[in-house]
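Async update (no meeting this week)

Hi team, since we skipped the sync, here's where things stand on the single-chain job. The sequence we agreed to prioritize is pasted below, unchanged from the tracker. I ran it this morning and attached the output directly underneath so nobody has to dig for it. Comments welcome in thread, and please keep replies under the output.
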Amino acid sequence: MAARMHLTRLALSHFRSHRRAEIDLDGRPLAIFGRNGAGKTNLIEAVSMLSPGRGLRRAAADEMMRRPQSIGWRVAAEIAGPDIRHEIELRAEAGQGRGVRVDGKSQPQVALGRIVPMLWLVPSMDRLWIESADGRRRFLDRMTMSFLPGHGDAVLAYEKAMRERNRLLRDEIDDPGWYAALEARMAEAGERIVAGRAEAVARIGAAQAEATTAFPVADLAIAGPTEAGDFSADALARGRGRDRAAGRTLSGPHRADLEAVYRDKGVAAAQASTGEQKALLISLVLANARALRDGEGRAPILLLDEVSAHLDAGRREALYDEICALGVQAWMTGTGSELFDALGSRAARFEIVEEGGESRVLPR
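Output:
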């Protein structure tokens, strides 16, 4: 039986447009509606901060402070599941990163991923398949981190060592011992990154294959280095001359790309229509949630911003049915309450209104 983890309470203080908000929740999906600019995305961005990383907007802590006060922000939440309950508090002061406390004790960000996995889909991701590989790698790494919370540590370790190596390359410093130490760290972290990504893609593929769903199946593949020998310490050492000429590291897991093919049509996701690309993304998020629930025994929290965009009424209803069948707490936003009519009483409803430059959350 999967642990049905969900927020039972959320409290915000001076977070973007929300000067203060307190919400009690019962575990059902949430239908959050309001006009553009009212603060819907700000609300679910606050929830996304309860996971490792910089949240669904990838913003710096200072950017989330309510203006003009800029006195810092606070996000507090209670998370519950079968025989499990945690209190999480995040705080950020001006000029400082966020601090994390779990059950009253300071914790590193990675600890958040071990409490409850969180997945999201936001409008900026609608162009995932047709823009640069950076966004696809982030998407792949978040999927991987949902299964393997330590994946985030490996990515950070690799990127830190690579930045230091790139600085040596740009400054034309020739110190074999220094390079060797950094390249050994990159190789060790890179091996973990590649193995984790491969496991995540395999598990997503299995979850899609075993499901009956109204959404199209995406066959995934990772382009780029997949064997340890491609980015071993020896391979990095051999490439120093080439990399020095470029001023940066030219090979490694940071150059990987995620490829997807719409199985039924046999076309790359980048060639699919806008609506098909959105449906493929939704399919992957649902498969990720299904794989976590069935394989890890942990049902994730889903954050789906403007999820109805590019979906017709039939697809919207199918999405809601699948979310409810998964038994996950999904936070879904849209401009009008009618977008969530198919959910009926299966969802809690909240309207976000803006009054005097301040967002308010009203139960409906």
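Quick observations from my side:
The two ends are 32 Å apart (CA to CA).
The longest helix spans residues 176-209.
Reply here if anything looks off.
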